[in-house]
Write a structure and sequence with these properties.
Layout: H1 9-26, H2 36-39, E1 40-44, E2 49-54, E3 57-64, E4 70-74, E5 81-88, E6 97-104, E7 117-123, E8 132-138, E9 147-150, E10 160-166, E11 170-175, E12 178-184, E13 201-208, E14 228-239, H3 265-275, E15 276-279
Antiparallel strand pairs: 1-4, 2-3, 3-14, 4-13, 5-10, 5-14, 6-7, 6-13, 7-8, 8-9, 9-15, 10-11, 11-12
One 2-acetamido-2-deoxy-beta-D-glucopyranose binds at residues 91-92.
Length: 299
């Protein structure tokens, strides 16, 4: 069960009203900035996760031990939007552990042939060795679009902001506001896949993946270090806004440059030059028989 230590419901309520009114004043695009506790539900490992107040910030701790891990999902699902969350990852020897932040439709109801997903997976490592940020995009049940990055800071000592911007033209992944990946909509007419119709929920998990996660699976989880914790807070959802006069984002005309404003191409190129360690589009050996996926040659 979710714990809510030492915070009376009236002060929680007060804080929530304050946060809501600040959000309304601060932004015309209506950022939904409620408390994690109100916004998400625990989807896995109820007894391995808890909410607590860190100062005045409502924080969710996900826990992993030998028995299992834990996870959450937002209560609401969205078709397009910007999703930001602050995460502090498993410290010290995190080898074998994987913490995630991702968008996915309600899994059980959707046949795999329609499975869409936008993934950030933080692959743990031995103490002192760097984490890998592994990203992927699934559309209609097809993934295999991996790009990996080295973070340029220690993600275990502080909270950092990880974001997914999803609009009809681009999926952009950002770290502390810097775009590191863009997956663009090449157009169904040209045979290129993009998630355009089903609502997805932002979610997070902490689980054991020591078969593959760390140094290709050579380094296993050290259970003497368990339990492992990753911390999530400040989940922000900003609904997608179309250009003036357009009813909703899906109606934005394809030739409209409106959504290109959200992509800083120069910053993206620089971040990839500096921090990308794997790109499926550059893996000629892997695709030597079938050829590179279409989107790799699109832009
Ligand atoms: C990580 O190691 C440091 C130094 O040994 C220790 O002080 C700290 O409590 C450890 N953190 C966790 C989460 O185990
Ligand atoms: C862990 O550290 C090793 C050595 O620095 C590095 O090669 C590897 O990419 C790191 N990350 C993972 C997830 O194995």
């Amino acid at each position: 069960m979710a714990l809510l230590p030492s915070s009376s419901s009236s002060s929680r309520h007060h804080r929530m009203l304050l946060a809501l009114s600040m959000a309304i004043v601060a932004s015309r695009s209506a950022v939904v900035a409620a408390l994690m506790y109100d916004e998400v539900e625990i989807t896995w490992g109820q007894d391995h996760s808890f909410f607590y107040m860190d100062g005045d910030v409502d924080t969710l701790a996900l826990c992993l031990d030998e028995t299992h891990g834990s996870g959450f999902a937002s209560k609401d699902a969205y078709l397009y939007g910007r999703f930001d969350v602050d995460i502090m990852l498993v410290a010290n020897n995190s080898a074998g552990t994987v913490a995630t932040f991702y968008l996915m439709p309600d899994g059980d109801e959707v046949p795999w042939a329609y499975h869409d997903e936008v993934d950030l997976e933080f692959l743990g490592n031995e103490t002192g060795q760097p984490y890998t940020l592994h990203t992927n995009v699934f559309v209609n049940g097809v993934g295999g679009r991996e790009q990996q990055f080295r973070l340029w800071f220690d993600p275990t000592t502080d909270f950092h902001t990880y974001s997914i911007e999803w609009n009809p033209k681009h999926i952009i992944i950002l770290v502390d506001g810097t775009p590191i990946r863009a997956y663009s909509n090449g157009g169904a007419a040209r045979g290129m896949a993009f998630p355009t119709w089903q609502r997805m929920r932002p979610q997070g998990t902490l689980w054991n993946a020591d078969e593959w996660a760390t140094q290709g699976g050579r380094v296993k989880t050290d259970w003497t270090q368990a339990p492992f914790y990753a911390y999530y807070r400040n989940l922000r959802v900003t609904p997608c806004a179309p250009s003036p006069g357009v009813a909703w984002c899906g109606d934005e005309p394809p030739e409209s440059p409106w959504f290109d404003r959200s992509l800083d191409a120069a910053a993206l190129r620089k971040a990839q030059a500096d921090h990308m360690i794997y790109d499926y589009c550059a893996d000629l050996k892997r695709f030597k028989d079938k050829g590179l996926p279409k989107e790799c040659n699109a832009n």
